[in-house]
């Protein structure tokens, strides 16, 4: 298929099945495929779902092929009477179904290895439209196939997610035309709202061949720039520099989107060790960090100091300060960070203590009040923020993110006193540059 390099490849997805159409089964295949295409700088032009009806399938395939270059048809390749995608494809082309003997033999061998006799109905899965290109399925009984209709390629795959994904990764994506100069750039920010980012970026001059997308994945915001062949490399780099400058110190990573991994990389480069003392976050920070393989190279450990007795007996927080200021205070959280750093022998200690709710708040310390501290051998910084996020879990999630952001800011020499749009600052103590 020959196409103009300056035109973005038009792709549609046609999902089949009454159970998908009626909502009995969520169409996770479409969501996954859309994300993977996005990684390649491509996107769906549209997505459709059609019932297990032969006439409707043929009509939908015909309409999709008129509009698109590639049409992914998902589902309807099973052995039952309502699986009719292959039959619909044959009718679309005006050809007969014919037996693909190698696949029938493979099915028979698959059943024989399990000491089973293949049901006659499974032979249906070896019937392909005449002239179709066979696509192997190494993990299931429904093979895929490809046909061409009026200049469009229609790619058929089984609806089982594991089978569809393996087929897409190993056999579909390598077939996508390499002549298309597409791409995608991702920025991940924390602390700025999606609407603020949208308003600011909208004021920039968007290059020809570029489009912007946003995704709120609390607690971060993903900004995606999609390019087609009309947007040259120099233009892309120039525009990305403008976006990067606009986000400023709230940009925590690019492309990979894995905050914990980016922190790990920076800690390992600097050969630093980290320990945590968590109260209201209850181990959520540690959970984020240890989800990355190799985190033991820098993360010493953490203490969930939920009760005051643990704070005083293990972290050596002053009983007097606990009584005078309370557990949710700068004095206490700073001692927690210092204490865990000393007890566990790390270079950096980070601590959290707050009121996550729904109970426990007061007039001076309402629900959503969280204290943070970071301690090194030379200095400490602590701050109290008030989150407006409703609910215990969202408050803990945001507190976890702020703690991780404080570590990022420290490692990059940025101000620890960030003006987060998601919270209001109550007070702070110590130098914001450690």
Short description, anyone?
This protein folds into 3 domains: 11-175, Molybdenum Cofactor Biosythetic Enzyme, Chain A (3-Layer(aba) Sandwich), CATH 3.40.980; 183-254, Alpha-Beta Plaits; 259-429, Alpha-Beta Complex (Maf protein). It has helices at 18-21, 28-39, 54-67, 85-93, 101-113, 161-172, 194-202, 233-247, 259-270, 284-290, 308-313, 319-325, 330-344, 392-411, and strands spanning 11-16, 44-50, 70-74, 97-99, 127-129, 133-135, 144-149, 152-157, 183-190, 210-217, 220-227, 251-254, 274-278, 299-304, 348-354, 369-375, 380-387, 423-429.
Note down, in words, how this protein is organized.
The chain is an alpha/beta fold and 434 residues long. The chain folds into 3 domains: 11-175, Molybdenum Cofactor Biosythetic Enzyme, Chain A (3-Layer(aba) Sandwich); 183-254, Alpha-Beta Plaits (2-Layer Sandwich); 259-429, CinA-like (Maf protein, Alpha-Beta Complex). Helix content is 36%, strand content 25%. The chain contains 14 helices and 18 strands. The protein has helices spanning 18-21, 28-39, 54-67, 85-93, 101-113, 161-172, 194-202, 233-247, 259-270, 284-290, 308-313, 319-325, 330-344, 392-411, and strands at residues 11-16, 44-50, 70-74, 97-99, 127-129, 133-135, 144-149, 152-157, 183-190, 210-217, 220-227, 251-254, 274-278, 299-304, 348-354, 369-375, 380-387, 423-429. It has a 6-stranded mixed sheet with strand order 2-1-3-8-7-6, sandwiched between helices. A 6-stranded mixed sheet has the order 14-13-15-16-17-18, sandwiched between helices. A 4-stranded antiparallel sheet has the order 10-11-9-12, sandwiched between helices. β10 and β11 form a beta hairpin. The longest helix has 20 residues, at 392-411. It is elongated and about 85 Å long. Mean pLDDT is 93; it is low at 1-6. It comes from Alginatibacterium sediminis. This is CinA-like protein.
């Amino acid at each position: 298929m020959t196409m103009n390099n300056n035109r973005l490849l038009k792709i549609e997805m046609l999902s089949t099945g009454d159970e998908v159409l009626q909502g009995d089964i969520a169409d996770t295949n479409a969501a996954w495929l859309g994300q993977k295409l996005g990684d390649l700088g491509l996107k769906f032009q549209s997505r459709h779902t059609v019932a297990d009806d032969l006439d409707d399938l043929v009509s939908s395939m015909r309409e999709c092929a008129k509009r698109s270059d590639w049409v992914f048809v998902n589902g309807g390749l099973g052995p039952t009477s309502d699986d009719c995608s292959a039959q619909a494809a044959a009718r679309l082309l005006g050809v007969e179904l014919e037996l693909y003997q190698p696949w029938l033999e493979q099915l028979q061998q698959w059943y024989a290895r399990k000491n089973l006799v293949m049901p006659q109905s499974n032979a249906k899965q070896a019937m392909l439209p005449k002239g179709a290109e066979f696509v192997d399925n190494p993990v299931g009984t429904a093979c895929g196939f490809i046909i061409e209709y009026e200049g469009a390629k229609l790619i058929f795959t089984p609806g089982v997610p594991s089978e569809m994904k393996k087929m897409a990764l190993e056999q579909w994506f390598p077939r996508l035309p390499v002549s298309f100069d597409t791409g995608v750039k991702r920025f991940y920010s924390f602390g700025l709202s999606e609407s603020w980012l949208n308003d600011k970026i909208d004021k920039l001059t968007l290059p020809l061949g570029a489009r912007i997308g946003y995704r709120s994945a609390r607690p971060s915001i993903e900004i995606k720039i999609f390019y087609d062949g009309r947007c040259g490399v120099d233009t892309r780099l120039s525009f990305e520099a403008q976006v990067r400058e606009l986000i400023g110190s709230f940009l925590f990573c690019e492309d990979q989107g894995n905050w914990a991994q980016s922190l790990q990389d920076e800690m390992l480069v600097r050969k630093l060790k980290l320990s945590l003392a968590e109260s209201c976050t209850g181990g959520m920070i540690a959970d984020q960090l240890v989800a990355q393989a190799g985190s033991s190279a820098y993360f010493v450990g953490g203490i969930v100091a939920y009760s005051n007795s643990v704070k005083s007996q293990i972290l050596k927080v002053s009983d007097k300060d606990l009584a005078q200021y309370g557990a949710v205070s700068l004095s206490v959280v700073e001692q927690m960070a210092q204490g865990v750093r000393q007890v566990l022998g790390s270079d950096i200690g980070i601590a959290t203590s707050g009121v996550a709710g729904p109970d426990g708040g007061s007039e001076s310390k309402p629900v959503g009040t969280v204290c943070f501290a970071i301690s090194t051998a030379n200095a400490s910084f602590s701050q109290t923020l008030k989150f407006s996020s409703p609910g215990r879990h969202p408050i803990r999630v945001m507190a976890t993110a702020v703690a991780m952001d404080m570590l990022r800011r420290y490692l990059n020499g940025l101000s620890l006193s960030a003006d987060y749009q998601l919270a209001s600052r109550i007070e702070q103590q110590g130098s914001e540059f450690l």
